[in-house]
Design brief:
This protein is 41% helix and 18% strand. The chain is of the alpha/beta class. Bound molecules: 1,4-dihydronicotinamide adenine dinucleotide.
């Protein structure tokens, strides 16, 4: 036998020895609990009401770890009751007092970090290296960071209060980290919690409940109930929950959007992804290879923001794929408790089957599949790192979230092509851009529709930076200041509507079609106004256009008398479609400078001001509120335009202090094309209050003016035409509010809908689930009160935050 002599030769030929982490302390901890856990409700451990339960399995060995309760309706209710009872006390504590509790939780996690890391590894199958070095430290960091937000709450979130009782439903891929992401901001904000961990991985959440109990968290503030999707559904549908926060599949997210529609429950959804990993030819390919390892083989690829689509510039595709294969050959899959292992087990057989099925589909569809030469262990649920080349952009494996260690690669030629490929997905969670050219990176990052963009890095997370999606990857952010808003509500809203507005159904939306019976086009003979000699048209793409169907609707003044004050066009589905197209064509508005947008808004105000009397007379004629009130409304509308002109160049993002050597830029980006259904009342001010913040922040809009009083909006056409508003930025379609809003909410090219109509917005929220558009039901407020009718809440709703991570240094 030849013995190696040189050091490099010895290094190359050395075998890995086992480096096992002991599971003994965890097995003892499990044994101390008698092989079964109850539910943690109201500060006590209680059995499930109906005695149902299920086993928790170690996916690396198939061994049973313990048994947990399948919580039923009575259990969910008991947990919600406990959280409700604890709410006044917890919300009433000072921010400082809550900060102390959060600090205690951070300390508790740190003191028991190894137990938690091993328990997580046993329960989920992820490697101890990851749980020990990534998951659990990030959990502690999250509680420390949010202890800070609790401390600063009264000053930094003045005018806001806790959203109330929150139901939190989390997945199995980062079990304890998801507990932290959900629980820490909720506690900091003063909310009380019912948390449901995933059925595959409930154990660290239960351990955390135990730690929280020992750390003195008051009873009922945190309740942990175990169970599967049925339990989650019960929690979502429980009438006494004020907010739902969910992380998981887009499919379930869609159900939750539908189930909460019209209930007034706040909602944040962090859903799936198919994130692009874009490599330009000037990238450092060796770094790229390590980046890919982190992007898709970290946590066995069971990561919502996994870089699962490798997009490579053509010139470097071949060498990169060679390097990747060489690296994959050296990855080690095995016991998660072995510290020298790169990849552990897949969480459950059902997930393993899903991965296998999708890989087979990829092969069937003609892509080239490659796996390392070695075999995976067979005693648990393991799957090898897998690479697909020759993948068509429309192939199943290029579009569907595989949620496993499977990378699909495609090539591109130009940066424009890279962006097009990157955005060729309904998702928008994350992206990673690799190039040594900072100009290129910073040109590409804003063009990608994703909530997080990592430049020359990937899968970096921190409590200070918001995380969350665009498009069908959900909405809302977790982490940082932006994440805190998810658990807060304006105080005036809490005062006027209680913790939650029960909302109401939009009711049966009238079908807008030829079957609509238009009002008579004949003016009322008693009209005091000059004869109506023209019906305002619609305003689409900067032009006044006739409605698709030649029907008009009569606008009648207030009783008594109900005189005709004018007529407007009856918009329909086709008009909305044209307006949406026009709004898309004006997408360049998003790139206009804040300065320019401010100028346009000031100009609208300037052109409106000399026509105050005319607009006031019109408002009075439609509403009968008196000329003085109408004048006040016009003045308020002008002031509001000034407000958003002022904000247009001041709605700054932030630079987050994340623990990387570099910067994390939090940029406020527009939502895109937003539909707006104006409130019935305050026909001018309601319109301006909703449209101005959207336009100020770079969105383009399709607006349905007040249904009973649309003429202030149609009178505005001439103001808009003379105020340099680019064509397509503001489009106006008059007609039946709810029917048109429904069309907007169903339209897959509309990115958001703001509903200020009278019906409560249920139908809009329901229909929005189609493409998970951002909705906001902004009705029932005093539009004249600046506290309710303008400000940061509107700007926040008009934008979504993109966090761009840019490390620096050679
Ligand atoms: P899932 O979305 O069904 O489960 C996530 C959580 O939601 C679990 O706690 C589950 O009990 C709960 N849940 C399920 N149905 C519910 C309902 N109707 N109402 C309320 N809660 C409900 O995800 P699953 O089935 O575990 O994984 C399926 C696929 O989902 C994965 O292959 C992956 O593509 C995706 N996924 C994405 C995650 C992410 O972080 N974005 C996390 C987990 C899964």
């Amino acid at each position: 036998m030849n013995h190696p002599t040189g050091i490099s030769e010895i290094f190359e030929t050395m075998e890995y020895g086992p480096a096992p982490e002991t599971d003994q302390p965890v097995l003892e901890w499990l044994a101390r609990h008698g092989g079964a856990f109850g539910l943690y409700v109201g500060g006590r451990w209680v059995p499930g009401e109906d005695g149902r339960g299920f086993d928790v399995i170690n996916p690396a060995t198939r061994a049973k770890l313990t048994r947990v309760v399948q919580a039923g309706a009575a259990d969910v209710s008991a947990a919600v009751v406990a959280a409700r009872a604890a709410l006044p006390g917890w919300a009433g504590l000072s921010g400082h007092a809550r900060a102390r509790h959060l600090y205690a939780l951070a300390r508790a996690v740190q003191k028991h970090s190894r137990l938690l890391a091993v328990l997580e590894s046993l329960d989920n199958g992820k490697s101890i290296r990851e749980t020990r070095d990534i998951d659990i430290p990030l959990v502690a960091r999250h509680f420390y960071h949010h202890a800070g937000w609790a401390q600063l709450l009264e000053t930094e979130f003045a005018g806001y209060g806790p959203a109330g009782v929150v139901g939190q439903i989390i997945p199995w891929n980062f079990p304890l980290l998801m507990v932290a992401w959900k629980v820490a901001p909720a506690l900091a904000a003063g909310c009380t919690i019912v948390l449901k961990p995933a059925e595959f991985t409930p154990l660290t959440a239960l351990a955390f409940a135990e730690l929280a109990h020992e750390a003195g968290l008051p009873p009922g503030v945190l309740n942990v109930i175990t169970g599967d999707g049925e339990t989650g559904k019960l929690l979502v549908e429980h009438p006494d929950v004020d907010k739902i926060a969910f992380t998981g599949s887009t499919e379930v997210g869609r159900h939750i959007r539908q189930a909460t529609a019209g209930t007034g429950k706040k909602l944040s959804l962090e859903l799936g992804g198919k994130s692009p990993f874009i490599v330009f030819e000037d990238a450092d390919l060796d770094s790229v290879v390590e980046g890919v390892v982190d992007a898709i083989w970290f946590n066995q690829g069971q990561v919502c923001c996994a870089g699962s689509r490798l997009l490579v510039q053509e010139g470097v595709a071949a060498p990169l794929i060679d390097k990747l294969r060489a690296r994959m050959e050296k990855l080690r899959v095995g016991s998660p408790l072995d510290k020298a292992v790169d990849m552990g087990a897949i969480v459950a057989p059902v997930q393993l089957e899903r991965i296998r099925g999708l890989v087979e589909k990829g092969v069937e569809e003609g892509a080239q599949m490659w796996q390392p030469s070695w075999a995976c262990p067979t005693d648990g649920y393991f799957y090898p790192p897998t690479l697909f080349t020759d993948v068509a952009p429309a192939a199943t494996i290029a579009q569907v979230e595989i949620f496993g260690p499977v990378l699909v690669s495609m090539t591109f030629r130009t940066p424009t092509e890279a962006v097009a490929l990157a955005n060729n997905t309904p998702f928008g969670l994350a992206a990673s851009v690799w190039t040594e050219n900072i100009n290129l990176a910073l040109d590409i990052a804003p063009k990608i529709k994703a909530g997080v963009v990592w430049v020359n890095c990937t899968n970096l997370f921190d409590a200070a930076a918001g995380f969350g999606g665009y498009r069908e990857s959900g909405f809302g952010r977790e982490g940082g200041r932006e994440g805190m808003w998810e658990y807060l509500k304006p105080t005036w809203e809490l005062e006027t509507t209680g913790m939650r507005d029960a909302g109401g159904g939009m009711g049966e939306a009238a079908e807008v079609s030829g079957a609509t019976h238009p009002a008579s086009p004949i003016p009322h003979p008693d009209s005091p106004l000059p004869a109506i000699d023209r019906t305002p048209k619609l305003f689409i793409g900067g032009k006044q256009v006739r409605p698709d169907q030649a029907y008009s609707r009569r606008i009648v003044g207030p009783p008594p008398g109900g005189r005709t004050v004018g007529e407007v066009g009856e918009g329909n589905r086709k008009d909305i479609r044209n307006a949406v197209e026009a709004a898309h064509a004006a997408a360049g508005w998003a790139q206009a400078t804040g300065h320019l947008r401010a100028q346009v808004l000031y100009y609208i105000a300037e052109n409106l001001a000399p026509r105050q009397a005319e607009f006031a007379a019109r408002i009075d004629a439609m509403t009968g509120g008196g000329v003085d009130a109408a004048r006040r409304e016009v003045d308020a509308a002008i002031a509001r335009l000034f407000t958003y002109a002022a904000w247009a160049d001041k709605w700054d993002g932030a630079v987050h202090h994340t623990p990387v050597r570099g910067v994390t830029l939090a940029m406020n980006e527009p939502i895109g094309v937003v539909g707006v259904a104006c409130p019935d009342d305050h026909p001018l001010l309601g319109f301006v209050s909703l449209v101005a913040p959207l336009v100020a922040t770079g969105n383009t809009v399709v607006v349905i003016p007040s249904e009973p009083a649309p003429l202030s909006a149609t009178d505005l056409y001439s103001v808009l035409e003379t105020s340099d508003v680019p064509a397509g930025v503001i489009n106006i379609v008059t007609g039946a509010t709810d029917a048109l809003a429904q069309i907007l909410a169903e339209h897959l090219d509309v990115d958001g809908v703001w509903y200020g109509g009278a019906a409560g917005g249920k139908a809009v929220e329901l229909a929005s689930a189609g493409n998970m558009k951002r909705t906001w039901v902004a009705h029932r407020r005093d539009w004249l009160d600046p506290r309710q009718g303008e400000g940061r809440e509107f700007l926040r709703r008009a934008t979504q935050v993109k966090n761009i991570w840019i490390p620096y240094g050679e």
